[in-house]
Every structure is written in C-alpha cells, then in structure tokens.
Design a protein that fits this description.
The structure holds 2 protein chains of 2 kinds. Chain A is an alpha+beta fold. Helices cover about 20% and strands about 35% of the residues of chain A. The longest helix of chain A has 26 residues. Chain B is α+β, with helices and mostly antiparallel strands. Chain B is built from 2 helices and 4 strands. Chain B has a 4-stranded antiparallel sheet with strand order 1-2-4-3, with helices on one face. The longest helix of chain B has 27 residues. The termini of chain B are far apart. Classes of the chains: A alpha+beta, B alpha+beta.
Chain lengths: ~270, ~90
C-alpha cells in the first residue's frame, strides 16, 4: 500500500492510493460521504418570524449552512451521556435576531451568534431571508453532530470520488506521428516533441479513449491500473480534508473491531 | 452493529448484520473471497430501507466459517491501520 498527496489546500485534497482493491477504495469513499460526523443545525425554535418565509423553509435553509466542526469536544447525541436530549457535549445553540427597521435587510449566516466560537458558519455570506421594513426574525437554532446517511446536510464533503490510474501505451514502431491523437485529446495530455509522441500529465486522462479511436495505425492503447486510485475530495469547510480522510479510516478500523467482537461472541 | 446467526453448519454460515450496508459488507465479501479456503462469499440487502444485511459464507471445510470471517476482518483492520499510518505520515502529523 502506498499513498501520495497530489494537491492539498484548506478545502481540497487529492491523492493517489496504490495497492488496494476497489472494494477498499469504495468503502473509504462511502464512509467519507455518509459516516464522518459534522455539525449542522437540526432544530430551530422560532420566537418571532414575520418574514415572507414559513418557519419550515427558514429552518431548512439554516440546516444546510455548513458549520465548522470540532470533533474533539463534541459527541454524537446517540453516544452522549445525556441520552441524546441535548447537553453541552452534544449540542450548540446559535441565536439570531434581526429586525428591518427602516430599509430592506438581508439576513445572512453571519448574523447567527454561536454559543461556542469554534462552531460557526463556514461562510458568513450565505443569505437566509430578506426582510422588508418592519419585518422581524428571531430564533434559536440547535446544532448537533450527525452523519451524512441521515441527511445530506451532515456530509463533510461536497464531492468525493476516485478513478483508476490511467495507463497509456504507445507502440513507437506503429506510430506514424500524424498528430490526430494530440488534436483530439480533450485533456490535452499528449504532445509531439522532437518528432516523438509523449504523455505529459497522465493523471488528467479521463479514459475517454478518443486517442485510440482516431489513431490510423492503432499504435495507442489506453488502459488502467485496477489497484491504483486517484482520490479527489472537496470539503464543505466543516472539517479540514485531511481530517475527514483520517476520521474515515478510523471509522473503518472501529467497524472491523466491532464486527470482530461480535464474531468472538458467537463462539 | 449486531450479528445474528441464521444458519450454521461446519462449512457454511449465514448471518444477519444489523446496521451495516454495502460499505462494510462489500469489503468483507472481497476479503473473504481472497481467502482460498473460502469457496463462496456473498451478501444481500433484502430491503434498501431496512438496514439489515445477510452474509453467506461457504468454506471448503478446512476452516470454520466464523474463523474465515474473523481472518477477513483482521485483514481489513490491518490494511486500514496501515493506511492510517501512511496517510498520517504523508500529511505530516
């Protein structure tokens, strides 16, 4: 097994995972998508809402706002000592009070005041509702940890995907350097250099096999390595991407430990 | 995670897993069929909304099916631990 980071910033991560089976890569992908917990608003208590939106619509919009998550200080309600009724360890209260006094006011996610400075909206520029003069919105929102399989608002990533590592082989004896493949490649990864066909950035190849199709001498072959994957994930901002992958692997370890313990009970 | 044995013989076992879907079961299936003593391994999700999965394992008789399941789980755990270690090293923690 081998790992190599390709790109990395505060929101995105792409890496090559070598020497594992598809089932393993897929398990990792599915855990990232549906089982790594994040914070999201789940219950909203409306004190006053004279806006044009129904309470339910505002509650839904609030739920979809990604919140920065602190996995070390919070636990899932079902694992909490309070039994899931809501305490300091499994719940955060965010309050919002906006009134349009003399002009139209847009309520943004930045207007949410959190009880915990670590749990705040990822971006303050998410509009929630517009208020006309005289309208008022006052509410208390309760955020908790949850998993993507329950509701997509708890997904830590906006996308996570993998693809096989492409392999392009060129038969130099058959190649007549016509340049058809160079012209047709949508990712522009082939180039003619010093009268020789070269592959520049194979990771970009999307396995469309257009080059194979347009080659008059059938000198080019596209294949892929079934045990090497290019993973790409994009965090919503609730957790750093490295943390998401780390948590996912830990969840997989925990799953196998759980299953092992259950099996041992059978004997 | 809850495991219930539905049927068990010397060579076969059918278990019901409560709370796990394709994520873990497909992985388990793959690791089971990598074991040459296992002649068949498969899983079935009867209803997509009811989170119960049935796993069926048949071995050639040289190993108890529960042991085959245990060995597959151990290999999954080992691979996940290796990955965690490599990943942590790669991101520099």
């Amino acid at each position: 097994m081998e790992i190599q980071i390709l790109e990395r910033d505060d929101r995105n991560l792409s890496f090559i995972l070598k020497g594992v089976d598809v089932a393993f890569a897929n398990a990792l992908r599915r855990i990232i998508l549906a089982e790594v917990p994040t914070m999201a608003i789940d219950k909203v208590l409306f004190v006053e809402n004279t806006s044009v939106f129904f309470d339910e619509i505002i509650a839904h919009r609030l739920g979809l706002i990604p919140l920065t998550t602190d996995l070390d200080s919070y636990v899932l309600p079902e694992e909490c000592s309070c039994g899931g009724t809501g305490c300091d360890q499994c719940q955060v209260v965010l309050s919002l009070k906006v009134e349009a006094k003399d002009d139209i006011v847009t309520v943004y996610s930045r207007d949410l005041v959190s009880q915990d400075p670590k749990i705040v909206p990822v971006s303050g520029d998410i509009p929630i509702v517009k208020l006309k003069k005289g309208q008022k919105l006052e509410l208390e929102a309760y955020a908790r940890l949850g998993r993507g399989r329950e509701h997509a608002k708890w997904q830590p990533v906006s996308t996570v995907a993998y693809k096989y590592m492409p392999q392009i082989s060129i038969d130099l004896e058959k190649c007549n350097k016509c340049g058809n493949c160079v012209e047709n490649c949508p990712r522009r990864i082939l180039r003619l250099e010093d009268d020789q066909l070269v592959i520049t950035n194979i990771i970009e190849c999307n396995l469309c096999r257009l080059c194979e199709e347009v080659c008059p001498s059938k000198a080019i072959k596209v294949s892929w390595d079934e045990r090497t994957f290019i993973f790409r994930l994009e965090s919503t901002g609730s957790l750093p991407p490295e943390r998401i992958v780390e948590e996912a692997i830990k969840i997989l370890i925990r799953k196998s430990e759980d299953f092992e313990n259950e099996l041992k009970k059978l004997r | 995670m809850k495991v219930k044995v539905l049927e068990k013989t010397d060579k076969t076992i059918e278990i019901e897993l409560d709370g796990e879907g394709h994520t873990f079961c497909n992985l388990l299936r793959k690791y089971l069929i990598d074991d040459e003593r296992v002649t068949f391994a498969g899983y079935r999700i009867d209803h997509p909304l009811i989170g119960k999965t049935k796993i069926y394992v048949r071995t050639d008789g040289t190993i108890d099916p529960i042991d085959a399941l245990l060995s597959a789980t151990e290999r999954i755990k080992k691979d996940a631990e290796t990955l965690l270690m490599l990943f942590k090293r790669e991101v520099g923690e």
